[in-house]
Amino acid sequence: EAAAAAAAEASKGGRKRGRAAAAAAAEPAPVEEATPAEEPAAAKGGQRRRVSDGGASAPPETPANANSQGGSSEGGLGSGGHEKRDLTKQDYVISFSGFPDDAARYKKVVSNSLKGRVEEKEMPSCTHVVCVQPLKRTVKLCAAISLPSVTLVTSDWIKACESAKSFVDPKPYTLSGVQCHGKAWEFNVSASLENRQKKKHGCLHGQSFFITPNNKPASRMPDSDLQMVIRCAGGEVQEKPPNSSNEGKVIVVSTEEERKAWSKYAKYAKTVMEAGHLLTCVLKQEIDLDGGKLQ
What we know:
Layout: H1 2-26, H2 41-52, H3 63-67, E1 93-97, H4 103-113, E2 117-118, E3 128-131, H5 139-144, E4 151-154, H6 155-164, E5 178-181, E6 185-188, H7 189-198, E7 208-211, H8 223-232, E8 236-237, E9 250-254, H9 259-262, E10 271-274, H10 275-284
Parallel strand pairs: 1-2, 1-3, 3-4, 7-8, 7-9, 9-10
Antiparallel strand pairs: 5-6
């Protein structure tokens, strides 16, 4: 009987353990909470953008931000208050001053190799004017020196660009120092640029000029070229000669060879100025009404 009782008790315990095991098997295992993986950088940036809408974090990089780091933007130079971007190849507008026929090779370098643009006439649209050495007093030089947007450089700049196969910093190649042509004219480029920088307007601002009709093209710069030089320097060009109604207000520009043309206007003129003296004034960026008088 004792043995039978022990067996029955053992059987009952086995059934209890079986039911517990079955219940444990049926109950789902607890799920361990996963540790989130590190958020990718892009996702983090996206999260910061959402937060930044409330002003709590730095703004995301936009094309304007990228622009200040050398990228490009359709917003234009300096848009959004950021630094101005570097000039693109197409932004370079180059003109050549005083070169003989060999300038054709340089022009091909600019257009074909460097993908810039060559300008022949409109100096205000230029970014750089390449000047021949020794320097020649050309209409391009006389017009460009009055324009803060134009950098005057030597041909060494184009050579450096050609070697680099890209436009390079023009600063080491900018025109500088004393330039002259015998006793005909002389000026210091650095001093001229300082004079230009000091002025809010061009060196001829507030002055009106009448150019006598040029019957001797070899004696001076053509009328149309003189007009461009005067206007680039801030002066005004009058189509009619001075008379009693504007006496003492207009500068007559001419040459000694054209005495017959200007002598009849002299009494009404502020002064009669030799054309070459006017060009020297522009190169120096300072008008001198006492010099270069025709009398």
